[in-house]
């Protein structure tokens, strides 16, 4: 015969299991109708209408087609308390061959910067809106989502969004130091 303590323990376990199984799973983050203008770091949608969401395996397959890899991760900022006479030499690691346009995923870009962005993408794709383009940043980065959305809204038809970003890539692959795209400001857009 079971003791009262054993029965109470079993009842407590059943109650805890029931509690956790009845808890609703958090609703996925919905896609905004336009570009996301909130904080650039945070939970992102699981989808990007008009684009393909890529996991690492899908990206590895797509690499055979030599997609345009578009890194929109931010540039490192010199700390305010960094010594004025200190040598500041930040580096940015990305996928080998990636084009780095820090901050290009901001919802609002200055007109000149937005025009430069589209001109550069047009040049890099040789005006082929069907060329594969992969946007990425870091995990939970709205910037790469926004750039994917921006490209879809401009008529690009083969856009892939890699939400795992450089962190997901470097779990199995090497990275390379990249420089910002020529003429592209590393300052955060206003």
UniProtKB/TrEMBL annotation:
Pfam families: Rhodanese
Domain Rhodanese: 119-178
Keywords linked to the UniProt accession: Signal
Segment forming the signal sequence: 1-26
InterPro entries (UniProt xref): PQQ_CXXCW, Rhodanese-like_dom, Rhodanese-like_dom_sf
SUPFAM superfamilies the record matches: Rhodanese/Cell cycle control phosphatase
Cited NCBIfam families: PQQ_CXXCW
Record protein name field: Rhodanese domain-containing protein
Organism: Mesorhizobium plurifarium
Lineage: Bacteria, Pseudomonadati, Pseudomonadota, Alphaproteobacteria, Hyphomicrobiales
